[in-house]
Write a structure and sequence with these properties.
Length: 638
Protein backbone atom coordinates (compact mmCIF):
# COMPACT_ATOMS: atom_id res chain seq x y z
CA UNK A 1 0.00 0.00 0.00
CA UNK A 2 0.98 3.64 -0.14
CA UNK A 3 3.34 5.17 2.33
CA UNK A 4 1.68 6.48 5.47
CA UNK A 5 4.17 9.28 6.13
CA UNK A 6 4.94 12.67 4.64
CA UNK A 7 8.63 11.91 4.32
CA UNK A 8 7.95 9.32 1.64
CA UNK A 9 6.72 12.19 -0.49
CA UNK A 10 4.89 10.50 -3.29
CA UNK A 11 1.79 9.38 -1.46
CA UNK A 12 1.23 11.04 1.90
CA UNK A 13 -1.74 9.36 3.58
CA UNK A 14 -3.17 11.71 6.17
CA UNK A 15 -0.41 14.32 6.28
CA UNK A 16 -0.61 15.67 9.79
CA UNK A 17 -1.12 19.28 8.73
CA UNK A 18 -4.15 21.47 8.06
CA UNK A 19 -6.51 19.58 10.34
CA UNK A 20 -7.66 22.53 12.42
CA UNK A 21 -7.88 26.30 12.47
CA UNK A 22 -4.73 26.33 14.62
CA UNK A 23 -2.64 24.89 11.78
CA UNK A 24 0.16 27.15 10.63
CA UNK A 25 -0.66 28.10 7.07
CA UNK A 26 1.62 27.02 4.28
CA UNK A 27 3.53 29.85 2.58
CA UNK A 28 1.58 31.53 -0.20
CA UNK A 29 3.33 33.39 -2.98
CA UNK A 30 0.66 35.50 -4.71
CA UNK A 31 2.17 37.80 -7.30
CA UNK A 32 -0.40 40.51 -6.46
CA UNK A 33 -2.49 41.23 -3.39
CA UNK A 34 -6.22 40.88 -4.00
CA UNK A 35 -8.32 43.13 -1.77
CA UNK A 36 -10.57 41.07 0.51
CA UNK A 37 -14.26 40.77 -0.23
CA UNK A 38 -16.95 39.73 2.22
CA UNK A 39 -18.08 36.22 1.21
CA UNK A 40 -19.29 32.98 2.77
CA UNK A 41 -17.22 29.85 3.27
CA UNK A 42 -19.39 28.09 0.71
CA UNK A 43 -18.69 30.75 -1.90
CA UNK A 44 -14.97 30.56 -1.13
CA UNK A 45 -15.07 26.83 -1.77
CA UNK A 46 -16.87 27.17 -5.10
CA UNK A 47 -14.81 30.12 -6.29
CA UNK A 48 -11.63 28.21 -5.46
CA UNK A 49 -12.88 25.20 -7.44
CA UNK A 50 -13.56 27.44 -10.44
CA UNK A 51 -10.08 28.96 -10.16
CA UNK A 52 -8.64 25.44 -10.28
CA UNK A 53 -10.36 24.74 -13.57
CA UNK A 54 -13.32 22.71 -12.29
CA UNK A 55 -16.11 22.69 -14.85
CA UNK A 56 -18.32 19.91 -13.48
CA UNK A 57 -19.33 18.76 -10.01
CA UNK A 58 -21.14 15.47 -9.49
CA UNK A 59 -23.20 15.42 -6.34
CA UNK A 60 -26.34 15.11 -4.26
CA UNK A 61 -27.57 17.73 -1.74
CA UNK A 62 -28.61 17.27 1.87
CA UNK A 63 -29.04 19.20 5.09
CA UNK A 64 -25.43 19.79 6.15
CA UNK A 65 -24.23 20.74 2.68
CA UNK A 66 -27.24 22.96 1.79
CA UNK A 67 -25.37 26.25 2.41
CA UNK A 68 -22.82 25.20 -0.23
CA UNK A 69 -25.60 24.22 -2.63
CA UNK A 70 -27.24 27.61 -2.04
CA UNK A 71 -24.02 29.31 -3.11
CA UNK A 72 -23.74 26.81 -5.98
CA UNK A 73 -27.18 27.97 -7.21
CA UNK A 74 -25.79 31.49 -7.59
CA UNK A 75 -22.47 30.41 -9.11
CA UNK A 76 -24.16 28.09 -11.63
CA UNK A 77 -26.20 31.04 -12.89
CA UNK A 78 -22.95 32.69 -13.99
CA UNK A 79 -22.12 29.67 -16.16
CA UNK A 80 -18.74 29.17 -14.48
CA UNK A 81 -19.53 25.69 -13.21
CA UNK A 82 -22.06 22.94 -13.86
CA UNK A 83 -23.52 20.53 -11.30
CA UNK A 84 -24.67 17.06 -12.34
CA UNK A 85 -27.34 15.71 -9.97
CA UNK A 86 -26.81 11.98 -9.50
CA UNK A 87 -29.34 9.59 -7.97
CA UNK A 88 -26.97 8.16 -5.36
CA UNK A 89 -23.74 9.53 -3.91
CA UNK A 90 -21.84 6.44 -5.04
CA UNK A 91 -22.72 7.47 -8.59
CA UNK A 92 -21.21 10.90 -7.91
CA UNK A 93 -17.89 9.47 -6.80
CA UNK A 94 -17.70 7.05 -9.74
CA UNK A 95 -18.64 9.81 -12.20
CA UNK A 96 -15.92 12.08 -10.82
CA UNK A 97 -13.52 9.12 -11.06
CA UNK A 98 -14.44 8.44 -14.70
CA UNK A 99 -14.06 12.13 -15.52
CA UNK A 100 -10.58 12.13 -13.97
CA UNK A 101 -9.42 8.95 -15.72
CA UNK A 102 -10.52 10.18 -19.13
CA UNK A 103 -9.22 13.75 -18.85
CA UNK A 104 -6.24 13.44 -16.52
CA UNK A 105 -7.76 16.31 -14.52
CA UNK A 106 -9.01 16.23 -10.94
CA UNK A 107 -12.60 15.00 -10.59
CA UNK A 108 -14.89 16.62 -8.01
CA UNK A 109 -17.90 15.22 -6.15
CA UNK A 110 -20.17 16.47 -3.36
CA UNK A 111 -22.14 14.66 -0.67
CA UNK A 112 -23.83 15.68 2.55
CA UNK A 113 -23.01 14.48 6.06
CA UNK A 114 -23.83 11.10 7.56
CA UNK A 115 -25.31 8.67 5.01
CA UNK A 116 -24.47 10.99 2.13
CA UNK A 117 -20.80 10.91 3.07
CA UNK A 118 -20.72 7.17 3.75
CA UNK A 119 -22.37 6.52 0.38
CA UNK A 120 -19.25 8.06 -1.18
CA UNK A 121 -16.89 5.61 0.53
CA UNK A 122 -16.93 2.88 -2.14
CA UNK A 123 -16.10 5.41 -4.84
CA UNK A 124 -13.34 6.97 -2.74
CA UNK A 125 -11.78 3.54 -2.18
CA UNK A 126 -12.07 2.77 -5.90
CA UNK A 127 -10.18 5.95 -6.78
CA UNK A 128 -7.58 5.36 -4.07
CA UNK A 129 -6.77 1.82 -5.18
CA UNK A 130 -6.30 2.96 -8.79
CA UNK A 131 -4.47 6.24 -7.96
CA UNK A 132 -7.10 8.57 -9.43
CA UNK A 133 -6.99 12.31 -8.59
CA UNK A 134 -10.26 13.37 -6.97
CA UNK A 135 -11.55 16.02 -4.57
CA UNK A 136 -14.39 14.82 -2.34
CA UNK A 137 -16.34 17.55 -0.56
CA UNK A 138 -18.67 16.48 2.26
CA UNK A 139 -21.00 18.52 4.38
CA UNK A 140 -20.68 18.13 8.15
CA UNK A 141 -22.75 19.10 11.17
CA UNK A 142 -21.91 22.50 12.74
CA UNK A 143 -18.63 22.76 14.61
CA UNK A 144 -20.26 22.90 18.02
CA UNK A 145 -22.17 19.66 17.29
CA UNK A 146 -19.19 17.60 16.13
CA UNK A 147 -18.71 14.68 18.50
CA UNK A 148 -22.21 14.87 20.02
CA UNK A 149 -23.81 12.20 17.80
CA UNK A 150 -25.90 14.91 16.17
CA UNK A 151 -28.47 14.07 13.51
CA UNK A 152 -26.67 12.76 10.40
CA UNK A 153 -23.26 13.13 12.00
CA UNK A 154 -20.59 10.68 10.88
CA UNK A 155 -16.84 10.97 11.33
CA UNK A 156 -16.13 10.75 7.61
CA UNK A 157 -12.61 12.01 8.26
CA UNK A 158 -11.92 8.96 10.43
CA UNK A 159 -13.85 6.52 8.26
CA UNK A 160 -11.86 7.41 5.15
CA UNK A 161 -8.39 7.61 6.75
CA UNK A 162 -7.15 4.41 5.04
CA UNK A 163 -8.58 5.25 1.59
CA UNK A 164 -7.55 8.84 0.90
CA UNK A 165 -4.26 10.46 0.12
CA UNK A 166 -5.05 13.26 2.54
CA UNK A 167 -8.00 14.77 4.48
CA UNK A 168 -9.11 18.15 5.79
CA UNK A 169 -11.77 19.25 8.25
CA UNK A 170 -12.27 22.98 7.63
CA UNK A 171 -12.51 24.64 11.04
CA UNK A 172 -12.27 28.26 9.85
CA UNK A 173 -13.64 29.64 6.56
CA UNK A 174 -10.48 31.74 6.23
CA UNK A 175 -8.60 28.51 5.54
CA UNK A 176 -10.93 27.42 2.73
CA UNK A 177 -9.08 28.83 -0.30
CA UNK A 178 -5.71 27.58 0.92
CA UNK A 179 -7.10 24.13 1.71
CA UNK A 180 -8.64 23.80 -1.76
CA UNK A 181 -5.34 24.83 -3.38
CA UNK A 182 -3.41 22.34 -1.24
CA UNK A 183 -5.95 19.60 -1.95
CA UNK A 184 -5.61 20.01 -5.71
CA UNK A 185 -1.84 20.02 -5.45
CA UNK A 186 -1.77 16.85 -3.35
CA UNK A 187 -4.41 15.02 -5.42
CA UNK A 188 -2.74 15.66 -8.76
CA UNK A 189 0.99 15.43 -8.04
CA UNK A 190 3.25 12.53 -7.11
CA UNK A 191 1.15 9.40 -7.04
CA UNK A 192 -2.37 10.79 -7.62
CA UNK A 193 -5.24 10.01 -5.29
CA UNK A 194 -8.44 11.27 -3.65
CA UNK A 195 -8.44 14.09 -1.09
CA UNK A 196 -11.35 14.69 1.32
CA UNK A 197 -12.53 18.15 2.40
CA UNK A 198 -15.11 17.98 5.20
CA UNK A 199 -16.98 21.29 5.65
CA UNK A 200 -19.11 21.93 8.77
CA UNK A 201 -22.41 23.63 7.99
CA UNK A 202 -21.66 26.80 9.93
CA UNK A 203 -18.26 27.15 8.25
CA UNK A 204 -20.02 27.19 4.87
CA UNK A 205 -22.46 29.84 6.15
CA UNK A 206 -19.99 32.11 7.95
CA UNK A 207 -18.94 35.27 6.11
CA UNK A 208 -15.37 36.55 6.23
CA UNK A 209 -12.93 38.68 4.27
CA UNK A 210 -12.24 36.32 1.37
CA UNK A 211 -8.89 36.49 -0.42
CA UNK A 212 -8.51 33.95 -3.27
CA UNK A 213 -5.54 31.61 -3.44
CA UNK A 214 -4.45 30.91 -6.97
CA UNK A 215 -3.49 27.43 -8.26
CA UNK A 216 0.16 26.56 -7.77
CA UNK A 217 0.75 29.26 -5.16
CA UNK A 218 0.86 27.01 -2.09
CA UNK A 219 4.03 25.42 -0.77
CA UNK A 220 3.98 22.22 1.27
CA UNK A 221 7.47 21.75 2.76
CA UNK A 222 6.68 18.24 3.99
CA UNK A 223 5.43 17.05 0.62
CA UNK A 224 8.06 16.80 -2.10
CA UNK A 225 7.39 14.02 -4.60
CA UNK A 226 10.48 12.71 -6.36
CA UNK A 227 9.94 13.33 -10.06
CA UNK A 228 13.42 12.87 -11.53
CA UNK A 229 15.11 9.49 -11.56
CA UNK A 230 18.58 8.92 -10.14
CA UNK A 231 21.07 9.16 -13.07
CA UNK A 232 23.22 6.33 -11.72
CA UNK A 233 20.21 4.03 -11.52
CA UNK A 234 19.07 5.01 -15.01
CA UNK A 235 22.52 4.16 -16.38
CA UNK A 236 22.39 0.82 -14.57
CA UNK A 237 18.99 0.13 -16.16
CA UNK A 238 20.35 0.90 -19.62
CA UNK A 239 23.22 -1.50 -19.05
CA UNK A 240 20.83 -4.32 -18.07
CA UNK A 241 18.67 -3.64 -21.13
CA UNK A 242 21.71 -3.79 -23.41
CA UNK A 243 22.82 -7.10 -21.90
CA UNK A 244 19.38 -8.74 -22.00
CA UNK A 245 18.40 -11.35 -24.59
CA UNK A 246 14.82 -11.86 -23.38
CA UNK A 247 13.59 -8.48 -22.09
CA UNK A 248 9.95 -7.67 -21.36
CA UNK A 249 8.23 -4.37 -20.64
CA UNK A 250 5.56 -4.70 -17.93
CA UNK A 251 3.51 -1.48 -18.03
CA UNK A 252 0.92 -0.36 -15.48
CA UNK A 253 -1.40 2.52 -14.72
CA UNK A 254 1.48 4.78 -13.77
CA UNK A 255 2.33 5.12 -17.45
CA UNK A 256 -1.23 6.31 -18.12
CA UNK A 257 -1.17 8.75 -15.18
CA UNK A 258 2.14 10.18 -16.42
CA UNK A 259 0.95 10.39 -20.06
CA UNK A 260 4.05 8.38 -20.97
CA UNK A 261 2.62 6.21 -23.79
CA UNK A 262 4.85 7.87 -26.40
CA UNK A 263 7.96 7.20 -24.33
CA UNK A 264 6.94 3.58 -23.71
CA UNK A 265 6.60 3.08 -27.46
CA UNK A 266 10.00 4.68 -28.15
CA UNK A 267 11.70 2.45 -25.59
CA UNK A 268 10.02 -0.68 -26.93
CA UNK A 269 10.97 0.08 -30.53
CA UNK A 270 14.50 1.24 -29.71
CA UNK A 271 15.41 -2.09 -28.12
CA UNK A 272 12.83 -4.32 -29.83
CA UNK A 273 11.21 -5.19 -26.50
CA UNK A 274 7.79 -6.87 -26.32
CA UNK A 275 5.22 -5.10 -24.13
CA UNK A 276 2.56 -6.43 -21.79
CA UNK A 277 0.22 -4.29 -19.72
CA UNK A 278 -1.77 -4.62 -16.55
CA UNK A 279 -5.53 -4.03 -16.43
CA UNK A 280 -4.77 -0.44 -15.38
CA UNK A 281 -2.10 -0.07 -18.06
CA UNK A 282 -4.38 -0.89 -21.02
CA UNK A 283 -4.00 1.89 -23.57
CA UNK A 284 -0.42 2.73 -22.62
CA UNK A 285 0.79 0.75 -25.64
CA UNK A 286 -0.94 0.21 -28.98
CA UNK A 287 -2.23 -3.38 -28.98
CA UNK A 288 -2.15 -3.44 -32.79
CA UNK A 289 1.66 -3.05 -32.60
CA UNK A 290 3.60 -6.26 -33.36
CA UNK A 291 5.46 -5.92 -30.04
CA UNK A 292 2.20 -5.92 -28.05
CA UNK A 293 1.34 -8.96 -25.94
CA UNK A 294 -1.88 -7.56 -24.50
CA UNK A 295 -2.70 -7.95 -20.83
CA UNK A 296 -0.93 -10.35 -18.47
CA UNK A 297 -2.08 -11.97 -15.25
CA UNK A 298 -5.04 -14.05 -14.12
CA UNK A 299 -7.01 -13.58 -17.35
CA UNK A 300 -4.18 -12.27 -19.49
CA UNK A 301 -3.06 -13.69 -22.79
CA UNK A 302 -1.16 -16.97 -22.72
CA UNK A 303 1.78 -15.48 -24.60
CA UNK A 304 2.08 -12.58 -22.12
CA UNK A 305 2.10 -15.01 -19.19
CA UNK A 306 4.62 -17.32 -20.89
CA UNK A 307 6.80 -14.31 -21.70
CA UNK A 308 6.87 -13.04 -18.12
CA UNK A 309 7.75 -16.54 -16.95
CA UNK A 310 10.67 -16.94 -19.37
CA UNK A 311 12.06 -13.40 -19.63
CA UNK A 312 15.55 -12.62 -18.33
CA UNK A 313 14.82 -8.93 -17.71
CA UNK A 314 11.52 -7.47 -16.52
CA UNK A 315 11.19 -3.70 -16.90
CA UNK A 316 8.31 -2.66 -14.65
CA UNK A 317 6.93 0.79 -15.52
CA UNK A 318 4.34 2.28 -13.18
CA UNK A 319 2.99 -1.04 -11.91
CA UNK A 320 2.91 -2.57 -8.44
CA UNK A 321 3.24 -6.36 -8.81
CA UNK A 322 -0.41 -6.88 -7.91
CA UNK A 323 -1.45 -10.42 -6.96
CA UNK A 324 -3.83 -10.67 -9.94
CA UNK A 325 -0.80 -10.04 -12.17
CA UNK A 326 1.85 -12.13 -10.46
CA UNK A 327 -0.02 -15.30 -9.54
CA UNK A 328 2.34 -17.26 -7.29
CA UNK A 329 4.72 -14.45 -6.43
CA UNK A 330 7.90 -16.46 -5.92
CA UNK A 331 7.52 -17.93 -9.43
CA UNK A 332 6.73 -14.62 -11.13
CA UNK A 333 9.56 -13.72 -13.53
CA UNK A 334 11.73 -15.94 -11.35
CA UNK A 335 14.55 -16.11 -13.94
CA UNK A 336 14.60 -12.36 -14.54
CA UNK A 337 16.40 -9.36 -13.20
CA UNK A 338 13.99 -6.51 -12.46
CA UNK A 339 14.06 -2.79 -13.19
CA UNK A 340 11.23 -1.04 -11.33
CA UNK A 341 10.27 2.54 -12.24
CA UNK A 342 7.59 4.15 -10.04
CA UNK A 343 6.85 7.53 -8.52
CA UNK A 344 5.86 5.97 -5.19
CA UNK A 345 8.90 4.73 -3.25
CA UNK A 346 6.61 2.61 -1.07
CA UNK A 347 5.80 0.42 -4.07
CA UNK A 348 9.40 -0.19 -5.11
CA UNK A 349 10.52 -3.37 -3.41
CA UNK A 350 7.18 -3.97 -1.67
CA UNK A 351 6.36 -7.27 -3.40
CA UNK A 352 9.49 -7.88 -5.48
CA UNK A 353 12.94 -6.49 -4.74
CA UNK A 354 14.36 -5.05 -7.98
CA UNK A 355 17.98 -5.13 -9.07
CA UNK A 356 17.56 -1.53 -10.28
CA UNK A 357 14.98 0.61 -8.43
CA UNK A 358 14.20 4.01 -9.97
CA UNK A 359 11.91 6.38 -8.08
CA UNK A 360 10.50 9.18 -10.20
CA UNK A 361 7.81 10.28 -12.61
CA UNK A 362 7.57 7.63 -15.32
CA UNK A 363 7.58 10.13 -18.18
CA UNK A 364 10.59 12.00 -16.80
CA UNK A 365 12.55 8.81 -16.14
CA UNK A 366 11.86 7.34 -19.60
CA UNK A 367 12.67 10.65 -21.29
CA UNK A 368 16.04 10.76 -19.50
CA UNK A 369 16.70 7.08 -20.24
CA UNK A 370 15.95 7.53 -23.95
CA UNK A 371 18.12 10.65 -24.16
CA UNK A 372 21.06 8.82 -22.62
CA UNK A 373 20.61 5.92 -25.05
CA UNK A 374 20.50 8.23 -28.05
CA UNK A 375 23.62 10.10 -26.91
CA UNK A 376 25.56 6.92 -26.25
CA UNK A 377 28.01 5.49 -28.73
CA UNK A 378 27.35 2.00 -27.36
CA UNK A 379 24.51 0.73 -29.54
CA UNK A 380 22.56 -2.48 -29.03
CA UNK A 381 22.70 -4.91 -32.01
CA UNK A 382 19.36 -4.54 -33.85
CA UNK A 383 18.58 -8.27 -33.85
CA UNK A 384 19.80 -9.13 -30.38
CA UNK A 385 16.27 -10.09 -29.25
CA UNK A 386 15.20 -11.79 -32.47
CA UNK A 387 15.20 -15.33 -31.12
CA UNK A 388 13.07 -14.14 -28.19
CA UNK A 389 10.61 -12.41 -30.52
CA UNK A 390 10.40 -15.51 -32.70
CA UNK A 391 9.52 -17.60 -29.64
CA UNK A 392 6.84 -15.12 -28.59
CA UNK A 393 5.38 -15.05 -32.11
CA UNK A 394 5.16 -18.84 -32.01
CA UNK A 395 3.27 -18.61 -28.70
CA UNK A 396 0.92 -16.12 -30.31
CA UNK A 397 0.20 -18.56 -33.12
CA UNK A 398 -0.17 -21.56 -30.80
CA UNK A 399 -2.20 -19.93 -28.01
CA UNK A 400 -4.48 -17.23 -29.44
CA UNK A 401 -7.47 -15.82 -27.61
CA UNK A 402 -10.44 -17.96 -28.60
CA UNK A 403 -13.81 -16.62 -29.76
CA UNK A 404 -16.42 -19.41 -29.48
CA UNK A 405 -19.27 -19.65 -31.97
CA UNK A 406 -22.27 -21.62 -30.74
CA UNK A 407 -25.10 -22.61 -33.09
CA UNK A 408 -27.92 -21.60 -30.73
CA UNK A 409 -26.48 -18.68 -28.71
CA UNK A 410 -24.22 -15.64 -28.91
CA UNK A 411 -20.88 -15.86 -27.12
CA UNK A 412 -19.93 -12.80 -25.03
CA UNK A 413 -16.66 -12.51 -26.93
CA UNK A 414 -18.54 -12.08 -30.21
CA UNK A 415 -20.43 -9.13 -28.75
CA UNK A 416 -17.25 -7.41 -27.51
CA UNK A 417 -15.56 -7.86 -30.88
CA UNK A 418 -18.54 -6.50 -32.82
CA UNK A 419 -18.88 -3.45 -30.58
CA UNK A 420 -15.12 -2.81 -30.85
CA UNK A 421 -15.25 -3.20 -34.62
CA UNK A 422 -18.02 -0.63 -35.00
CA UNK A 423 -16.65 1.81 -32.41
CA UNK A 424 -12.87 1.33 -32.44
CA UNK A 425 -12.05 4.79 -31.05
CA UNK A 426 -14.70 5.03 -28.32
CA UNK A 427 -14.10 5.54 -24.63
CA UNK A 428 -14.95 2.27 -22.90
CA UNK A 429 -15.97 1.90 -19.29
CA UNK A 430 -16.67 -1.46 -17.68
CA UNK A 431 -18.18 -2.91 -14.59
CA UNK A 432 -16.45 -5.85 -12.91
CA UNK A 433 -16.58 -9.54 -13.72
CA UNK A 434 -16.25 -11.78 -16.76
CA UNK A 435 -17.41 -9.05 -19.13
CA UNK A 436 -14.59 -6.82 -17.82
CA UNK A 437 -11.97 -9.46 -18.61
CA UNK A 438 -13.38 -10.18 -22.07
CA UNK A 439 -13.40 -6.45 -22.80
CA UNK A 440 -9.79 -6.20 -21.61
CA UNK A 441 -8.81 -9.12 -23.84
CA UNK A 442 -10.56 -8.10 -27.06
CA UNK A 443 -10.92 -4.31 -27.14
CA UNK A 444 -7.95 -2.33 -28.45
CA UNK A 445 -7.97 0.95 -26.54
CA UNK A 446 -6.01 4.15 -26.84
CA UNK A 447 -4.54 6.07 -23.88
CA UNK A 448 -7.19 7.06 -21.30
CA UNK A 449 -9.94 5.38 -23.33
CA UNK A 450 -10.07 2.33 -21.06
CA UNK A 451 -11.91 3.17 -17.80
CA UNK A 452 -12.24 0.24 -15.41
CA UNK A 453 -12.11 -0.42 -11.67
CA UNK A 454 -8.99 -2.57 -11.30
CA UNK A 455 -7.66 -2.53 -7.75
CA UNK A 456 -10.95 -2.55 -5.84
CA UNK A 457 -13.01 -4.32 -8.50
CA UNK A 458 -16.19 -2.31 -7.95
CA UNK A 459 -19.41 -3.64 -9.42
CA UNK A 460 -21.68 -0.74 -10.38
CA UNK A 461 -18.75 1.41 -11.54
CA UNK A 462 -19.45 1.31 -15.28
CA UNK A 463 -22.54 3.44 -15.89
CA UNK A 464 -21.72 6.36 -13.54
CA UNK A 465 -18.09 6.36 -14.72
CA UNK A 466 -19.36 6.55 -18.31
CA UNK A 467 -21.47 9.57 -17.30
CA UNK A 468 -18.34 11.33 -16.10
CA UNK A 469 -16.47 10.52 -19.30
CA UNK A 470 -19.32 11.67 -21.55
CA UNK A 471 -19.73 14.93 -19.63
CA UNK A 472 -16.02 15.57 -20.20
CA UNK A 473 -16.14 14.58 -23.90
CA UNK A 474 -19.67 15.24 -25.20
CA UNK A 475 -18.64 14.74 -28.83
CA UNK A 476 -16.92 11.38 -28.29
CA UNK A 477 -18.55 7.93 -28.30
CA UNK A 478 -18.73 6.52 -24.76
CA UNK A 479 -19.72 2.89 -24.25
CA UNK A 480 -20.19 0.98 -21.00
CA UNK A 481 -19.66 -2.78 -21.11
CA UNK A 482 -21.58 -4.29 -18.21
CA UNK A 483 -22.98 -7.55 -16.86
CA UNK A 484 -26.52 -8.19 -15.71
CA UNK A 485 -25.43 -8.37 -12.05
CA UNK A 486 -23.12 -5.34 -12.10
CA UNK A 487 -25.63 -3.21 -13.99
CA UNK A 488 -28.18 -3.55 -11.19
CA UNK A 489 -25.76 -2.12 -8.62
CA UNK A 490 -26.14 1.50 -9.82
CA UNK A 491 -29.01 1.37 -12.29
CA UNK A 492 -30.65 4.36 -10.61
CA UNK A 493 -28.17 6.51 -12.55
CA UNK A 494 -30.35 5.95 -15.60
CA UNK A 495 -32.29 8.86 -14.11
CA UNK A 496 -29.20 11.06 -14.40
CA UNK A 497 -28.67 9.96 -18.00
CA UNK A 498 -32.28 10.84 -18.75
CA UNK A 499 -32.29 14.20 -16.97
CA UNK A 500 -29.20 15.55 -18.73
CA UNK A 501 -29.48 13.58 -21.98
CA UNK A 502 -26.04 12.09 -21.38
CA UNK A 503 -25.50 10.02 -24.51
CA UNK A 504 -23.92 6.91 -23.00
CA UNK A 505 -24.40 3.53 -24.65
CA UNK A 506 -24.57 0.57 -22.24
CA UNK A 507 -24.13 -3.00 -23.51
CA UNK A 508 -25.18 -5.62 -20.97
CA UNK A 509 -23.78 -9.14 -21.46
CA UNK A 510 -26.67 -10.95 -19.80
CA UNK A 511 -26.10 -14.59 -18.86
CA UNK A 512 -28.38 -14.59 -15.81
CA UNK A 513 -25.49 -15.08 -13.38
CA UNK A 514 -22.90 -13.29 -11.35
CA UNK A 515 -20.65 -14.66 -14.05
CA UNK A 516 -17.22 -14.62 -12.43
CA UNK A 517 -18.64 -15.94 -9.15
CA UNK A 518 -20.31 -18.78 -11.05
CA UNK A 519 -17.05 -19.58 -12.86
CA UNK A 520 -15.13 -19.82 -9.57
CA UNK A 521 -17.87 -21.95 -8.02
CA UNK A 522 -17.66 -24.28 -11.01
CA UNK A 523 -13.88 -24.51 -10.95
CA UNK A 524 -13.03 -24.44 -7.24
CA UNK A 525 -16.20 -25.13 -5.22
CA UNK A 526 -17.52 -28.37 -6.65
CA UNK A 527 -20.16 -26.68 -8.83
CA UNK A 528 -22.08 -25.53 -5.76
CA UNK A 529 -23.71 -22.39 -7.14
CA UNK A 530 -24.52 -20.64 -3.89
CA UNK A 531 -26.39 -17.33 -4.35
CA UNK A 532 -24.93 -16.55 -7.78
CA UNK A 533 -27.97 -16.98 -10.05
CA UNK A 534 -29.66 -13.70 -10.94
CA UNK A 535 -32.57 -14.89 -13.11
CA UNK A 536 -35.32 -14.61 -10.49
CA UNK A 537 -36.01 -10.92 -10.01
CA UNK A 538 -34.16 -9.87 -13.18
CA UNK A 539 -35.90 -6.77 -14.54
CA UNK A 540 -37.03 -6.48 -18.13
CA UNK A 541 -34.18 -4.22 -19.22
CA UNK A 542 -36.05 -2.83 -22.23
CA UNK A 543 -39.07 -1.84 -20.09
CA UNK A 544 -36.77 -0.52 -17.35
CA UNK A 545 -35.06 1.78 -19.84
CA UNK A 546 -38.43 2.91 -21.17
CA UNK A 547 -39.56 3.74 -17.62
CA UNK A 548 -36.63 6.18 -17.41
CA UNK A 549 -37.38 7.61 -20.86
CA UNK A 550 -34.34 5.90 -22.40
CA UNK A 551 -34.13 3.72 -25.47
CA UNK A 552 -33.94 0.03 -24.58
CA UNK A 553 -33.03 -2.80 -26.93
CA UNK A 554 -32.75 -6.59 -26.81
CA UNK A 555 -30.43 -8.81 -28.86
CA UNK A 556 -31.15 -12.51 -28.60
CA UNK A 557 -29.62 -14.05 -31.73
CA UNK A 558 -26.47 -13.62 -33.81
CA UNK A 559 -28.29 -12.40 -36.91
CA UNK A 560 -29.39 -9.27 -35.04
CA UNK A 561 -26.02 -8.40 -33.55
CA UNK A 562 -24.41 -6.29 -36.25
CA UNK A 563 -27.49 -4.25 -37.19
CA UNK A 564 -28.62 -3.59 -33.64
CA UNK A 565 -25.18 -2.48 -32.49
CA UNK A 566 -25.19 -0.08 -35.44
CA UNK A 567 -28.67 1.12 -34.42
CA UNK A 568 -27.48 1.65 -30.87
CA UNK A 569 -24.53 3.75 -32.00
CA UNK A 570 -26.65 5.79 -34.40
CA UNK A 571 -29.25 6.75 -31.79
CA UNK A 572 -28.91 10.31 -30.49
CA UNK A 573 -29.34 9.65 -26.79
CA UNK A 574 -28.59 7.09 -24.10
CA UNK A 575 -29.28 3.45 -24.98
CA UNK A 576 -29.35 0.25 -22.91
CA UNK A 577 -28.83 -2.95 -24.92
CA UNK A 578 -29.62 -6.25 -23.24
CA UNK A 579 -27.64 -8.95 -25.08
CA UNK A 580 -28.67 -12.46 -24.13
CA UNK A 581 -25.42 -14.41 -24.29
CA UNK A 582 -24.34 -17.99 -23.67
CA UNK A 583 -25.28 -18.86 -20.10
CA UNK A 584 -22.26 -20.89 -18.99
CA UNK A 585 -19.38 -19.36 -20.95
CA UNK A 586 -16.16 -19.08 -18.92
CA UNK A 587 -13.37 -16.55 -19.25
CA UNK A 588 -10.07 -18.12 -20.32
CA UNK A 589 -7.12 -18.31 -20.08
CA UNK A 590 -7.17 -18.36 -16.30
CA UNK A 591 -4.42 -18.60 -13.73
CA UNK A 592 -5.86 -20.45 -10.75
CA UNK A 593 -5.18 -19.03 -7.27
CA UNK A 594 -1.80 -20.13 -5.92
CA UNK A 595 -0.49 -21.15 -9.36
CA UNK A 596 2.23 -19.57 -11.46
CA UNK A 597 1.40 -17.56 -14.57
CA UNK A 598 2.60 -20.39 -16.78
CA UNK A 599 0.06 -22.79 -15.23
CA UNK A 600 -3.02 -21.56 -17.04
CA UNK A 601 -6.24 -23.46 -17.56
CA UNK A 602 -8.50 -23.13 -20.59
CA UNK A 603 -5.75 -22.88 -23.20
CA UNK A 604 -6.74 -23.91 -26.74
CA UNK A 605 -5.93 -27.47 -27.69
CA UNK A 606 -2.79 -27.74 -29.75
CA UNK A 607 -2.73 -29.36 -33.16
CA UNK A 608 0.03 -31.92 -33.87
CA UNK A 609 3.13 -30.19 -35.09
CA UNK A 610 4.62 -31.11 -38.45
CA UNK A 611 8.37 -31.69 -38.40
CA UNK A 612 10.26 -28.88 -40.17
CA UNK A 613 13.78 -28.61 -41.42
CA UNK A 614 16.00 -26.02 -39.73
CA UNK A 615 17.64 -23.22 -41.69
CA UNK A 616 21.37 -22.68 -41.24
CA UNK A 617 22.91 -19.24 -41.31
CA UNK A 618 25.24 -18.71 -44.29
CA UNK A 619 27.49 -16.50 -42.19
CA UNK A 620 27.93 -18.36 -38.88
CA UNK A 621 26.17 -21.69 -39.60
CA UNK A 622 23.82 -21.30 -36.57
CA UNK A 623 20.69 -23.46 -36.70
CA UNK A 624 17.49 -21.39 -36.96
CA UNK A 625 13.81 -22.16 -37.20
CA UNK A 626 12.38 -21.74 -40.70
CA UNK A 627 10.09 -18.97 -39.40
CA UNK A 628 13.14 -16.82 -38.60
CA UNK A 629 13.90 -13.93 -40.92
CA UNK A 630 17.28 -13.19 -39.36
CA UNK A 631 19.88 -15.33 -37.67
CA UNK A 632 19.39 -15.42 -33.89
CA UNK A 633 23.17 -15.41 -33.36
CA UNK A 634 24.65 -12.87 -35.77
CA UNK A 635 21.62 -11.12 -37.29
CA UNK A 636 22.42 -12.06 -40.89
CA UNK A 637 19.35 -12.15 -43.15
CA UNK A 638 18.40 -15.78 -43.78
Amino acid sequence: MRSQSVSAGESPSQISISQSANHKQSPISNSSVVPPKRESGGFALLDSLVRHGVEYIFGYPGGAILPIYDDLYKVEETGRIKHILVRHEQGASHAADGYARATGKVGVCFGTSGPGATNLVTGIATAYMDSIPMIVVTGQVPRASIGTDAFQETDIYGITLPIVKHSYVVRDPKDMARIVAEAFHIASTGRPGPVLIDVPKDVALEEFDYVPVEPGSVKLPGYRPTVKGNPRQINAAIQLIRESRRPLLYVGGGAIAANAHAEVKQLAELFNIPVTTTLMGIGAFDEHHPLSLGMLGMHGTAYANFAVTDCDLLICIGARFDDRVTGKLDEFASHAKVIHIDIDPAEVGKNRVPEVPIVGDVKNVLTDLLRRCQNSTNKTPPYQNQEWLNLINRWKQDYPLVVPHYPDSISPQEVIIEVGRQAPHAFYTTDVGQHQMWAAQFLKNGPRRWISSAGLGTMGFGVPAAMGVKVAFPDEEVICISGDASFQMCLQELGTLAQYGINVKTVILNNGWQGMVRQWQEAFYGERYSCSNMEVGMPDIELLAKAYGIKGMVISNRDELQDKIAEMLAHNGPVIVNVQVTRDENCYPMVAPGKSNAQMIGLPKQQPKIAVEPVYCSHCNTENLPSHNFCSECGTKL
